[in-house]
Specification:
Rossmann fold, 63% helix, mainly alpha, 3-stranded parallel β-sheet, 3 strands
């Protein structure tokens, strides 16, 4: 099964955000076991780096590398952004994720 992870789930695991970390870690365990194929968008990678910037630069780089090593990364292009603009949801970032997933 293919799964597109929301930015917050990635942050929960990589930044060990309690209490959500345990549930998110279960998704990663399913990936390691071959039951799931995880993907994120390139926007998620940028958002993770932005949030992790509060930590030492070396930790931010480690978190971004962990994402690149752990997940398929779906690109975003003009077409995906234009589709996101047409979606009915009120959260543009969520719409971008949906457009990339499709």
């Amino acid at each position: 099964m293919n799964v597109l992870l929301d930015t917050n789930i990635v942050l929960d695991v990589l930044l060990n955000r309690i209490p959500w970390q345990a549930e998110a870690a279960g998704l990663l365990a399913a990936t390691r076991q071959g039951r799931l194929l995880m993907a994120v968008t390139s926007l998620t990678i940028a958002n993770v780096a932005y949030v992790a910037r509060r930590r030492p630069r070396s930790e931010m780089i480690e978190v971004v590398r962990a994402c690149l090593d752990s997940f398929d990364v779906l690109p975003l292009d003009r077409a995906a952004l234009q589709i996101a603009l047409t979606l009915p949801g009120g959260d543009f970032e969520d719409n971008i994720q949906i457009a990339a997933a499709t």
